[in-house]
Amino acid sequence: IILAGIFLGYICPFTLIARPTVASCYLQRLLVGLSAAICYSALVTKTNRIARILAGSKKKICTRKPRFMSAWAQVVIAFILISLQLSLEVTLIVLEPPEPIKSHPSIREVFLICNTSNMGVVAPLGYNGLLIMSCTYYAFKTRNVPANFNEAKYIA
């Protein structure tokens, strides 16, 4: 999942530097937030799982197995987090459809840019900020872990 997010992240600069068209404006709005959300969702899910495993191992008596610990459940949780970002971006695109417009910063200059409001940029990046904060929380919570889970130390 993380590799798919990284791949989309590497596609983003091409949409940002390309001549603005309707398609490139849509891709800009979708890919920038979605590529980061894919990576962060997988990290949040992984660090959450490690935190829950360690919290369960600290209890003296384990009465039942924690829920949603299988690999399949982790993938489903990651896709739910990704779908929240995707639905947020699609909603913003429906409310404010992107299209190329001419910008006149001075009398002699005309730029072709995509019309993007502040809300269209801040809301998807704000969701990514929430994912980053929750990932940092779980990474901090699991910083003193056994050696076989030690990669969580470097996330925060």
TrEMBL record:
UniProt keyword Phosphoprotein, yes or no: no
Membrane topology value: Multi-pass membrane protein
Localization terms from the record: Membrane
Residues covered by the G-protein coupled receptors family 3 profile domain: 1-156
Domain of life: Eukaryota
Keyword annotations: Glycoprotein, Membrane, Receptor, Transmembrane, Transmembrane helix
Annotated protein name in UniProt: Metabotropic glutamate receptor 1 homologue
Lineage: Eukaryota, Metazoa, Chordata, Craniata, Vertebrata
